[in-house]
Amino acid sequence: MASAAFSHADLAVRIIALLVGGGVALSSHGTKAAVRATANLSPEPFSNIALSLAEDAVAVGSSFLIAWFPLIMLGIVVLFLVVFFWLTPKIVRALKRRFGATRAPTSAAGS
Fold first, then answer.
1. Distance between CA 2 and CA 101 in Å, rounded?
2. pLDDT by residue (tens digit) across 41-61?
3. Exposure of 84 by Cβ count < 10 A (0-12 exposed, 13-18 middle, 19+ buried)?
C-alpha cells in the first residue's frame, strides 16, 4: 500500500516507501504472532477468545480509520512504532537475563 500511495513519485521514493511499509508490516505481524504465542500458553479458552475478538475489532476499526481518517491512523501507527522501538530493547534484555541465568548454573556444574 505504501508503494502504491507513492506510485507517481520518483523510483527512489517508491523503494523507500516499500521498505518502510514492509518494515511496519513486519513489526505488526511479529508483534501479533508473539502475543498469540503467549496467549496460547494459557490453558483456559477465555483469553484466546477475548484476544480473537480484540484482533477482529482492531482489524475492522483500523480499516475504517485508514479509509475515512488516514491521518489519525498514521498517528496511531507512529505511536505503535514508538512503543515497539521503546519496548524491544527491554524485551531483548529480559530474554537475555532469563536464558543467561538458566544457562550459567549448568555450565558451572559441568566444570
1. 42
2. 777 778 788 888 888 898 899
3. middle
d(CA 18, CA 40): 32
Q: What is the tally of structural domains in the chain?
A: 1
In tens, the pLDDT along 93-110 reads: 988 888 886 665 555 555
C-alpha distance across the termini of the chain, in Å = 56
Q: Using CA atoms, how far apart are residues 101 and 47, in angstroms rounded to an integer? A: 30
Range of the domain at 64: 2-109
Q: Which of 34, 36, 37, 38 is nearest to 52 (CA)?
A: 36
pTM exceeds 0.85, yes or no: no
CA distance 50 to 11: 43
